[in-house]
Amino acid sequence: MLEIKKLNVSVEENKILNDLTLSIKTGEVHAIMGPNGSGKSTIAHTLAGNPNYRVESGSISFNGSDLLDMEPTERSLDGLFLAFQYPIEIPGVTNASYLRQILNSHRKHQGKDPIDAAEFLKLLKEKSAYLKIPMEMHSRFVNTGFSGGEKKKNEVLQMDLLDPKLIIMDETDSGLDVDALKVTADAVNQMKSKNRSLIIVTHYLRLLEYIKPDFVHIFQNGKIIESGDSSLASRIDKEGYE
Amino acid sequence: MNKVSKDNFKQEKYKYGFVTDIESETIPRGLNEDIVRIISKKKNEPEWMLEWRLKAFHRLKSMKMPTWAKVEFDEIDFQSLYYYSSPKGHEDKPKSLDEIDPKLIETYNKLGIPLNEQKMLAGVAVDAVFDSVSVATTFKGKLNELGVIFCPISEAIQKHPELVKKYLGSVIPVTDHFYATLNSAVFTDGSFVYIPKGVRCPMELSTYFRINASETGQFERTLIIADEDSYVSYLEGCTAPMRDENQLHAANVELVALDNAEIKYSTVQNWYPGDENGVGGIYNFVTKRGLCKGKNSKISWTQIETGSAITWKYPSCILRGDNSIGEFYSVAITNNYQQADTGTKMIHLGKNTKSKIISKGISAGKSTNTYRGLVSFHPKAENATNFTQCDSLLVGDKSKANTVPLTENSNNSSSINHEATTSKISEEQLFYCLQRGLNEEEAQSLIVNGFCKEVLQKLPMEFAVEAQKLVSISLEGSVG
To answer: Which of B4, B147, B226, B376 sits CB 3.0–4.6 Å from B408 for a disulfide?
Structure first.
């Protein structure tokens, strides 16, 4: 699914990722843990193609394609989804019309007709109920004035609608209370499948108690200093990163 | 927030840039007393109208073009222009549909304005002005039954002289300023609307202005009177062919609202903006002013300005009646080398008068977009209030946005609440949308339409969707 080799990435003049190598197979769940500033979010944004993250050298192959050669839109349409740590507000655009537009963009890419309004509403109701999102939220403007929890749920909702092959969750647990965390984790667990891979970027153990990773990687200074199974996360939680 | 660095426009083809190949009746070039007389004669005008025009013409000789706006252009040679052009056979008055030259019907079909009443949008009556004449006015009969007068102004001058005499120039004096005075001397056609007492006009009234002839100026004159307790919603649309030359559209629009009357005036201005190098395009120098003459009257201007090489226009409200309300909702989009200097004046004369200004300026390419506004509270305007919100959005880093809000307050009981923001479409917003599978143009269009939402939703429903598309098209190519 994803093959990262000797990746070096800078933001402005600062080198953040240092010869990072990581391989993720289809169906696997990987957690990336690390202290603040270790480069965890950088890997998430680099994979999604954020232009502020400059790839100096190295390669990333995504389902056999050269990911670094693809525009952000193309990466999305080909099944890469990044759940943002800080979802962006788009004033004046209702969440419902935004969601429908991004869904239709993906449908178009798959050669399908746009979803009609009634069918979309049905789909939206179903998915929202699962995440305990009130329908009223969809008539508000995208992420505008949303609480931290609403924003994160809205990210997971988009993830669910777009049915991606590779999900990258950037600190999705931050800003969620226990109940919201559980609902969100349940929804993500439902999405786990042998055809889909997950990268969970997080500072804490708590999300990983709900979504069990197959592998845990500890980031320090832009590279992986230790990898292991889920027990590594528990150890870090007890002992800290130092 | 980071700006978007990609700012090279690839020009979306201007959909309305075609020329109708039709024989036209023109008069000699130039501006002189004879020309004024010829225009008046072509329109079969009574003597008083000619005198009115001549007064304006003589006054014009001592006037100068205003230079305070933030727009730059080469001097206009007013002697080189044609001041009148009419498709042959349509000089006198609008004909019934089967008498209209099929080429004209075809032209309006192409513009999406079918003149055949059966094919038209239900609930919208249209006056179609082609160069200097009105070629058709639809649904006249139906409106007549209610006593609503909706006709070309040239027809109103002949058939309703008492109303025209009373109100023409009553809001924009003949001697107001250069372009207004020029228009008063040489205006050719436009619409006349009278809504009688107590009538709520059941249809949207609209005028579609089309410039077709080259080297010809269009001098539109529109007069709308809403008598006591009446209501009307009026919309105008404008397009012109793509040409290398700059063409002048200098309009005067006057609105009068009597006691408890309301006029809602909407504009979708899509004149040819010139090409991506700034060659050609319409100079849109327009004077629009509404008088809330009666108590509790209301005038609301909504404008979507996407076209024209230069836009110079300040739809204003004079709030004379106590408790009267003036509103101005504007979206002005400039791209490539377009220049817009637009805004409003709210002149509070009466007690408890209220005004609201919402202006959204979007500048892309190498364009300049200026909001210029004046809110003035006169001594007798006790307890008057104004709310002003001016938001500018920059696309790319070569465009400019300016805000020039002026206020004059001559009493202590009035209040002004002003908010202004300038932002760039943030890289974060764009990237967020791209990450969800939208391409750059879709993402930008989504963000910009969101930015304009407050104003777009003020348009009559029949036109809101069209305007939304126009906003997207106007900015197409501003990324990538």
So the answer is: B376
The token duo for B418 is 């002003």
Put simply, the answer to whether B451 touches A72 (Cβ < 8 Å) is no
Residues A16-70 pLDDT 10s? 999 999 999 999 999 999 988 888 999 999 999 999 999 999 999 999 999 999 9
Is B12 among the domain residues? no
Its domain, for residue B436, covers 24-475
CB B389 within 8 A of CB B360: no
Q: B204 pLDDT band (50/70/90 cuts)? A: confident
Quick one: closest CA in B to A162, which residue?
B436
Q: Is residue B218 part of a domain?
A: yes
Cα–Cα dist B169/B49, whole Å: 12
**Residue B115 is assigned to a structural domain of this protein:** yes
CA dist., res. B369 & res. B373, Å (int): 13
Question: What ipTM was predicted for this assembly?
Answer: 0.96
Residue B10 lies in a domain: no
Q: Which of A81, A88, A162 sits opposite B429 (nearest CB)?
A: A88
What are the strands of the beta sheet with A29-33, ordered from one edge?
Answer: A80-83, A166-170, A197-202, A29-33, A215-220, A223-228
> Where is B451: in which H helix or E strand?
helix B440-456
pLDDT band at B258 (very low <50, low <70, confident <90, very high): very high
Name the nearest CA neighbour of B346 among B418, B283, B413, B284: B418
Domain count, chain B: 1
Q: Which domains does chain A have, with CATH numbers?
A: 2-88+150-239 (3.40.50.300)
Q: B453, A84: Cβ pair inside 8 Å?
A: no
Give the tens place of pLDDT for each residue, A91-133: 999 999 999 999 999 999 999 999 999 999 999 999 999 999 9
Question: Whole-angstrom Cα distance, residue B430 to residue A230?
Answer: 36
Helix boundaries (H) for A28-169:
40-48, 72-77, 95-109, 117-130, 148-162
Q: How many residues does chain A have?
A: 242
